[in-house]
Amino acid sequence: MTAELELRGADATPVKKKERKLAKRTKKLNRSFAGTVFLFLFISVFAIFTSLPLVLTISNAFKPLDELFLFPPLFFVRNPTLSNFSDLFILMQEGWVPFSRYVLNSFIITGIGTFGHLMCASMAAYPLAKNKFPFQKVMFSIVVLALMFSPAVTGLPNFLIISALGINNTYWAVILPAFAFPLGLYLMKQFMEQVPDSLIESARLDGASEFYIWRKIVMPNVKPAWLTLIILQFQGLWVTTGGVFLRSEELKPLTFAINQIALGGVARAGANAAAMLITAAVPITFFIFAQSRIIETMATSGMKE
Amino acid sequence: MQAKTMGQRRKGLSLRGREVFSGFLFISPWIIGILLFFFLNLGQSLIFSFNHIIIDPDVGGFSLRWAGLSHYQHILFVDGSFNRELAESIFDMVINVPLIIFFSLFMAILLNRAFLGRGLVRAIFFLPVIMATSAIEGSLELIMGMMMGGVTSVPPEIMRAETGFDATSIAFMLSEFGMPSQVIDYIIEAIAMLHDVIRASGVQILIFLAALQAIPPSMYEVAQIEGATGYEAFWKITIPMVSPLILTNVIYTIVDTFVRSEVIESTRAMMFTTTTLYDGTSVMAFGQSSAMALVSSIVACIVLLFVGWLISKYVFYYN
User: Fold this and answer.
1) Are B119 and B246 found together in one domain?
2) Which of B147, B245, B264 shows the shortest C-beta gap to A190?
3) Do B130 and B261 belong to one domain?
4) Which of the pair, B178 or A30, is modelled with greater confidence?
5) Which segments of chain B have a pLDDT < 70?
6) pLDDT in tens, A169-210
7) How far apart are CA A18 and CA A72, in angstroms?
8) CATH number for B127
9) Which of A40, A152, A165 has its CB closest to that of B264?
């Protein structure tokens, strides 16, 4: 792209210069083909790094057993087969909790948890970002602090609290703590900060209630934020195994079932590969869907300042 | 008419009062959540850190015995590994956080441009977050083990391979080609570092992407009409508009690297083990690990607050 420009510049006359300037401007709008190729190559290098485990997962899911155990290993499948998936379903039918129940559990936990978290976080973020009320600063620092205090090291207190609430061994034991996930609030607050005050003030002057402003003005304007939050929370909840909280087999999520298959070791290798693909496919699909909904917002488009 | 509205207003809350009221109303579900799952947790951990937790197998519960500051004394002055691990974790954090932030901002800017298959490539960069879950990692380990020639014959170092393409296999290949070992070590370190940075950047890239998309395109249009170069537009529009989310990402990255750090790993590993006191009672190490968690959290908090304060001086809020 630059080389081409310099070539043109070699015999620059005033007229040509003007032309060049024009060309430069249009170039900025639509990048040249070479630029796109370079960009694509650059991204590909990194993309290959990160996509390898998935490619391996997909390829393994379709490998017949003899290829799975082949040494030296094959990266790509040679004779793709669906036998791993049928193995998985046969295996799952043998269990006394049907496979569909695990899937349903995963969707219940992920769905309610994500929605509730979105509501809690975005409603709490609105006054933190836009209203003035007492203890605002204190509350916000608590959010940051809560981020730090990792749930990983509070296993026992967490268990005691869940038990004291009487929600042990119910879906709520996993869902309720997810509502209070601090990163979401922090993210929403930072985005809402960017919504012009004048937009909210004008709505207030027109007599809109705070709830109406939140729902109809603030939320649409921070759509990229809450779609991102949904992606993060979906991912976070999809992978929980329920741990110590969900003890009844019929409450366990899909990831737990997959873990159990993996523990089966070599004999379950095929089914394991298929199950892994299913577990990974759901959040990936969700990600692609949610990401495609994120488009540029127009927070300031109606403003004249 | 005028009088009527005045009268109405006097009956209800003032505008300011209404703002405060609705503020609390909006935030209350959150407050309840944070009280339950954060403050109670914190308080409970604090209590545990000052006590020995004695398991009572007959009752099926546990009882507490006052231990004073002995846990803190032990981890800070007696046990040599905690201090070292904490220092290493903080040091890693200082190195990794800027790298992750730069890389993810750069990637987000690239991925924000329009090109074919953009959605797919974005998903690929989020993959490490999806694949780095215990269920999937466990299965991947099993498969890697099999691919390396049967589970039983595989030493644990190779079993732990996180991707199909890890540093060990590259090292092996390069040394076969006759490359000097120092060069290989350097390459391995660089690749492992790059790999770690990419793996840890998924969420940050996503947040930056959202931030970039929240910038009104009209700003760039104006800049272009006024004759600003892409470079100027980046520093005068992109960076200020993204800056609140740089703060978010820095804080998230600090927390994320801290949670994955060595010190937390060992705290977690220790949590449910049991040790024996001098008088022979068996106690759960949760008390000591609570103390470890609290101390390391406090240290990390100090880092977090300092960095947060430093960056928030440069954050620009559109208003």
Assistant:
1) yes
2) B245
3) yes
4) B178
5) 1-13, 57, 59-60, 133-177, 277-281, 319
6) 888 888 888 887 788 888 898 888 888 888 888 888 888 888
7) 62
8) 1.10.3720.10
9) A152
Distance CA B308, CA A93 (A): 52
Q: What CA–CA distances, in Å, run from A291 to A178, A225, B243? A: 22, 11, 22
Instruction: Give the domain range for residue B37.
Output: 2-48
Let me know whether B38 and B100 are in one domain.
no
Residues in chain B: 319
Cβ–Cβ gap A127/B164 under 8 Å: no
Identify the sign of the CA torsion B234, B237, B238, B240: positive
Residues B7 and B148 in one domain: no
> Contact A149/B199, CB-based, under 8 Å?
no
**Best to test chain B binding among A33, A109, A145, A156 (most B CBs inside 10 Å):** A156
- In a shared domain, residues B140 and B7: no
Name which of A39, A134, A291 is nearest B119 (Cβ-Cβ): A291
Q: Is the dihedral of CA A59, A65, A71, A77 positive or negative?
A: negative
A155 vs B75, more confident: B75
Q: Based on the domain organization, do B211 and B141 belong to the same domain?
A: yes
- Chain A hits for B317, CB-CB cut-off 8 Å, are 193-194
Q: Are A257 and A98 in contact (CB under 8 A)?
A: no
The ipTM assigned to this model is 0.75
Q: Measured between CA atoms, how close is B236 to chain A, in angstroms?
A: 16
Chain A closest-CA separation from residue B182 CA (Å):
24
User: What residue ranges in B169-299 does DSSP mark as E strands?
Assistant: 274-276, 282-284
> Which of A226-230, A264-268, B237-241 has the least mean pLDDT?
A264-268
Does residue B166 belong to any structural domain of this protein?
no
Q: Pick from A118, A119, A185, A175: which is nearest to A147 by CA?
A: A185
Note whether residue B222 is domain-resident.
yes
Same domain (yes/no): B144, B284: yes
| Closest chain B CA to residue A142 | B34
Q: Is residue B199 part of a domain?
A: yes
Q: Is the pTM for the entire model greater than 0.80?
A: no
CB neighbours (10 Å) of residue A185? 29
Domain membership flag for residue B23? yes
Q: Please list every residue in chain B whose beta carbon sits closer than 8 Å to the beta carbon of residue A191.
A: 210-211, 214, 244-245
Same domain, B41 and B130: no
- What number is the average pLDDT over the span A282-302? 71
Q: By mean pLDDT, which of A71-80, A145-154, B152-161, B214-223 is the weakest?
A: B152-161
Provide the pLDDT for residue A12: 40
Q: How many CB atoms lie within 10 A of CB A220?
A: 13
Hey, of A25, A30, A50, which one would you mutate to test binding to chain B, going by the most B CBs within 10 A of its CB? Answer: A50
The one-letter amino acid at A48 = I
Residue A102: is its pLDDT beyond 90? Answer: no
pLDDT computed for residue A114 by the predictor: 93
pLDDT computed for residue B7 by the predictor: 45
Give the CA-trace dihedral at A267, A268, A273, A277, to 10 degrees: 180
Q: Do A262 and B125 count as a contact with CB atoms less than 8 A apart?
A: no
- Please report how the helices A223-238 and A182-192 are oriented relative to each other, as an axis angle in degrees rounded to 10: 170
Cβ-nearest to B297 among A53, A149, A176: A149
- Whether residue B258 and residue A150 make contact (CB cut-off 8 A), yes or no, is yes
User: Are A142 and B119 an interchain contact pair (Cβ–Cβ within 8 Å)?
Assistant: no
Tally of domains in chain B: 2
